[in-house]
Structure formats: structure tokens, C-alpha cells
User: Fold this.
Amino acid sequence: MKYIKTFETLRRKPKVGDYVRCQEQIYSTDNGICLFIKSNIGVIVNIKPKVNHPYFIKYINIPANIEQRFVDGVREFSLEEIKRFATAEEIEEYEMKQNAIKYNL
Assistant:
């Protein structure tokens, strides 16, 4: 059986290019966006350290009903909202873990 390692829980800060799973701290009245963000992996495309939500995370395949909540597929998050992250090399194992969570495996 292949060993699946545990992913970093913010021992280091995420960098541009890292794949992340987030959970918004400010809950919207629209549960669709919260569910989408919680169950999908995004990629950090930019970091602006001097703002409240410095991590700009890009998502793909955004449903049409929540697409207006993103700017070109990008949404801003704080460090506290990033729950897990992985480098590009670790993404395959990260996606397996995310799918297990998504489908309750």
C-alpha cells in the first residue's frame, strides 16, 4: 500500500504557484460559493502582503450561478482562510485527499 503523507498545515507560508484548499471565514448568505470554495482546489496567482486578504487564488470551472463573485476566476483570501496547501509536485496526492473528502471516502 502506498503511503500518503500528511500535507503541511501552514508550517511555512504558501507561495505563488502553490495549490490550496480554503474555507471562507466570512460566511455568505449564498451557501453555493462556500461549498464551491471548500470543495475545490485553487492556485495562488499573486500575493500582496500589505492588504487584509493578501492571497489571490484562481479557480477553474466556476458554476455560472456564483461566477459573478470572482474577478476573472480569482478571489482574495487571508492566511487564516487557507486550510491546506501543496506545491506543484505534491498536487496529485493532494487531489486524491481532496476527492476523498469531497466524496466522503
Summary: The chain is about 20% helix and 20% strand. The chain has one domain: 19-102.
